Amino acid sequence: MKKLILIDGNSIAYRAFFALPLLNNDKGVYTNAVYGFTTMLLKIIEEEKPTHMLVAFDAGKTTFRHQTYSEYKGGRQKTPPELSEQFPLVRELLDAFNIARYEADNYEADDIIGTLAKQAAGKDWEVKIFSGDKDLLQLVSERITVALTKKGITQVDYYDQALLDEKYGITAEQIIDMKGLMGDSSDNIPGVPGIGEKTALKLLKEFGTVEKVLSSIDQISGKKMKERLEEHKEQALMSKELATIYTEVPYEKELEELRFGDYDSKQVVALLKELDFSSLLAKFDYDDPQEEEKELAALDYETVSQIEERHLTSPAALIVEVLQENYHQAEIEGIAISNKEGHFFVPTEAALQSELFRKWAKDATAKKWVFDAKRTVVVLGWRDLLLEGIDFDVQMASYLLDPSLSSHEITDVARRKGIEDVQEDELVYGKGAKLKVPEQDKLGLHLARKAHALYQLKPLLEEELQKNEQEKLYRELEMPLSVILGHMETTGVKVDTEQLKAMGEDLEGRLQELEQTIHQLAGVAFNINSPKQLGEILFEKLGLPPIKKTKTGYSTSADVLEKLAPQHEIVEHILHYRQLGKLSSTYIEGLLKVTRKETGKVHTRFNQALTQTGRLSSTDPNLQNIPIRLEEGRKIRKAFVPSEQGWKIVAADYSQIELRVLAHISKDDRLIEAFRKDMDIHTKTAMDVFHVEKEEVTANMRRSAKAVNFGIVYGISDYGLSQSLGITRKEAASFIERYFASYPKVKEYMDTIIEEGREKGYVSTLLQRRRYLPDLTSRNFNKRSFAERTAMNTPIQGTAADIIKKAMIDMAAALDDKKLKTRMLLQVHDELIFEVPEAELDEVMKLVPDVMEQAMELAVPLKADVSFGDTWYDAK
DNA sequence: TACGACACGC
DNA sequence: GACGTACGTGTCGTAC
């Protein structure tokens, strides 16, 4: 059956505008009404699956109703300009969806809707009307439902005849009579003064219509009421007329032309992106077949079988295509170069076996522009091809310009710069199990397009970096670091797999015992790893009190279990089972899975363009979260060993780097003094916060002080602090207050940085790394608070990240300078790990902390502790 | 295949 | 006064 959806455009846009905070996109255009409208539209499309659709708008200021009553809609607030400017966007949106829209001089949206609804219902179509205006209820019939917004924008009540009867006890036709009696202040329809909804309904239930009410005035009880009705007879009749929707609006086209569904989703996607509606984009079905078919502009490119000088100019954009996410020892699918001479696709072997190409690659003066320098260097490195002269990395630039962007993929970076003619990798290669390389001309074209995009993007991004004063951060920190990280990854870390296996077997045995004990105590066998089953056992079978709930059921997290431990013996065994299970699956089996058989090494990948703060992350395996806190887990570190006989592992970590950074940025005298004297900072904080002498600081006071310091560094809230200390939120808040009282300039810094962030839209680190925080002006308390904590925290954590990155560059240079064989292996946020030949041990043990401490000059000294051992475990 | 719960590090 | 609270990655179970 055909289903027509009619939307009251003005009404929904108004609703959305007032229901949502005044959002704007990155171009400063207000978008809250369009956003709400779009949300509603997507919901309607998804839930109603309409075959036909139309959105009606009010046209001009005057309509035929003004002839009846010149004061019609008088006294209305002017439409706020922030809303009016959004109407063209709403129209654009509808055009992108190819949804019919209509407005007619002299008529209101209601009249258009009424007209079309009647026509469609007459043809037995199903009709649904969406609006916020109760007037439309008069249209309700067997075929016509009216969806009225109630709360927010997407919550609606669907009025059919039954609901109308239930809510008002009158029929659809009587809605106009009701308006005639009670009026409508929003449309300035007078009605009868003194009669409101209650009285109007009572009268109508008794007499049926306005006319009948008026002709039966003498039967009405109440002197006042009689008088009023008598006096405002005319006005009541006129009001009824005004409220009556006119259903004969001239509409030339056929209903059939309102057909919905034939739209170009590319256009919709483009518009949603332009509006910054990324959350809606996710909901919108991308895999629309029409999208994939879209033809890109043609690109002239050459497939090269023999490399010549003209292909290898400087500068040139270079694509080395690898499909595997993990690029270590990965296949190269093809190579593309774009330069002033043109665009070239070079089959992998044709390039790698070319002497000319190899020479060009290692020529540091031949400038290469790439996408993901580290990936490119490492991939070629595994093929014994040295790549030097990397002059620009588009991915890195995009990341530095705005780390919050969800994608720094070449296609997305290009699109943001208005370059549309690059295909998504996923469209070319497919994904998951269906991933495959297309025939050569398709591949060649795709890679040539990417290279071409790179070539165009470089100057655009470079200019932006300069504008942001991030050129130095980019050229002197991140770019040199990416090459160093590439070397570290390629070097890899040796793993003692025998040791791991032995630990694994031991763990397996103990896990089995624990499992038995737990099943016995539960009285039934179940999967301990399943939070669902575990919850049922603990909270239903054993009757323990559920402390916390999750979306899906009872929470069984460690902090909950710890509280339950005294009540039942089983709980401690479960905690122990979890602990060992984690070690076994993640750290033993997980690590063994990614250890290369031939070399016994793991090659992690550091993601240098991901975190919002400037830290690195590590994957496959993640070597930044190897256990240390509990002895049991810490033993895993015994499996990380030097890759050569007689070498040692050296580990050096910064002591309190974030708090030192805080002392530097805030210039707080007490904090600076504490670090200059190299005091135990948590004890010092306890002394200051609790106003006691050093000797009087109890273990508990120090623990609290440590948690507060932790909170300052990680930007947690009073709630977070209360959780970590097991105290109330009030107490936590008062702790924080006392901290600020002790370190007034820290407080000052916190206030200033929020203010600065609000004004500029972003906060920065010492080396000009940026983080944009639009939510600092959010009206949503949560969002705003979170943004404020982020504003306070990011410059601290980010500057610490800047410092260790700088230390890594200096360290690599020092090792090179001194011709040392020592290799830098890992970075764990405030820590660097090396493998060192015995003969270099003494020198390196001094060099590493020296270099780390000199990496940057702050108002307080930096301090690094260093240690060595036969394994990572022993380097403590 | 996608997502939530959980747990590890800084 | 409510809101739902550091950032990452990996594993498992469970739903689709």
TrEMBL record:
Its EC number is 2.7.7.7. InterPro entries: 3'-5'_exonuclease_dom (IPR002562), 5-3_exonucl_a-hlix_arch_N (IPR020046), 5-3_exonuclease (IPR002421), 5-3_exonuclease_C_sf (IPR036279), DNA-dir_DNA_pol_A_CS (IPR019760), DNA-dir_DNA_pol_A_palm_dom (IPR001098), DNA/RNA_pol_sf (IPR043502), DNA_polI_exonuclease (IPR054690). One of its GO terms (biological process) is double-strand break repair. Residues 299-466 form the 3'-5' exonuclease domain. GO terms for molecular function: 3'-5' exonuclease activity; 5'-3' exonuclease activity; DNA binding; DNA-directed DNA polymerase activity. It is an enzyme of class 2 (transferase). Residues 633-840 form the DNA-directed DNA polymerase family A palm domain. Keywords: Coiled coil, DNA damage, DNA repair, DNA replication, DNA-binding, DNA-directed DNA polymerase, Exonuclease, Hydrolase, Nuclease, Nucleotidyltransferase, Transferase. The keyword Cell membrane does not apply. Residues 2-261 form the 5'-3' exonuclease domain. Residues 497-524 form a coiled coil. Belongs to the DNA polymerase type-A family. This is DNA polymerase I. It comes from Halalkalibacter oceani.
